[in-house]
């Protein structure tokens, strides 16, 4: 019965997104970009019926709901993490690096970014993936002093503190923990604050499984 609830297509990926903290439908969609909105709605409804997710209205926004894990849903955290750790260890990295998605990469980088090494003011970092078409090449991370991080597809209009130019495969490999910035230095071009560029490995948002993998080792 547990398999019937959890082993349908995309369900564990959806659970990963919920456990990572996404609650609104559009935010969840950004974490599972290959899942159609219709299927996402169906899976959320199924998880709600199974007592894993509960849908709550937002009092200040009419007709808008958030999805929160119930106690049963939160109890699946170790299962999801174990699955991710297994994949990081045993699924060949080259296979993952053939399925590159800049929006998913940047969304996870935004979520896991560590603002502590950055200046105590608004910091804007523009990532330029020079190997991608213009519609997918430029991404902006806006880090506020309180630690809130926004991801922008279009220029947010703020002064840029650091430009980071590289290719998508290199950045994805770093995010996965397969390599790091120092080992791939020749594949990066930085322009702007040396203070921010010199600490990039410490504030860069890596996969939670990459972080745990290093911790275990």
Which descriptors apply to this entry?
five-stranded mixed β-sheet, globular, single chain, alpha+beta, Nonspecific Lipid-transfer Protein, Chain A, 217 residues, two-stranded antiparallel ribbon, Arc Repressor Mutant, subunit A, 7 strands, 13 helices
Describe this structure in words.
The chain has 217 residues and is of the alpha+beta class. The chain has 2 domains: 2-91, Winged helix-like DNA-binding domain superfamily/Winged helix DNA-binding domain (Arc Repressor Mutant, subunit A, Orthogonal Bundle); 98-216, Nonspecific Lipid-transfer Protein, Chain A (2-Layer Sandwich). 45% of the residues lie in helices and 17% in strands. The chain is built from 13 helices and 7 strands. The strands form 2 sheets. The protein has a 5-stranded mixed sheet. A two-stranded antiparallel sheet has the order 1-2. A hairpin with a 5-residue loop joins β4 and β5. α6 crosses α13 (208-216). The longest helix has 14 residues, at 77-90. The radius of gyration is 18 Å and the shape is globular. Mean pLDDT is 90; it is low at 213-217.
């Amino acid at each position: 019965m547990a398999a019937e609830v959890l082993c349908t297509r995309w369900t564990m990926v959806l659970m990963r997104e919920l456990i990572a903290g996404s609650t609104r439908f559009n935010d969840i969609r950004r974490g599972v970009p290959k899942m159609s909105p219709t299927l996402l709605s169906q899976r959320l409804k199924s998880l709600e019926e199974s007592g894993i997710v509960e849908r709550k209205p937002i009092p200040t926004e009419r007709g808008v709901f958030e999805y929160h894990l119930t106690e049963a849903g939160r109890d699946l955290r170790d299962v999801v993490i174990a699955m991710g750790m297994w994949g990081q260890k045993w699924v060949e990295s080259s296979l993952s690096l053939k399925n590159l998605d800049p929006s998913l990469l940047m969304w996870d980088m935004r979520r896991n970014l560590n603002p502590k090494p950055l200046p105590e003011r608004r910091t804007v970092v523009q990532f330029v993936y020079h190997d991608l078409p213009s519609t997918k090449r430029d991404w902006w991370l806006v880090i506020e002093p309180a630690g809130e991080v926004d991801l922008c597809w279009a220029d947010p209009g703020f002064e840029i503190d650091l430009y980071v130019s590289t290719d998508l495969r290199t950045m994805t490999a770093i995010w996965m923990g397969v390599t790091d910035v120092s080992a791939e230095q020749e594949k990066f071009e930085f322009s702007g604050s040396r203070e921010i560029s010199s600490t990039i490995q410490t504030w860069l948002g890596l996969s939670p499984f990459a972080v745990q993998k290093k911790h275990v080792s």
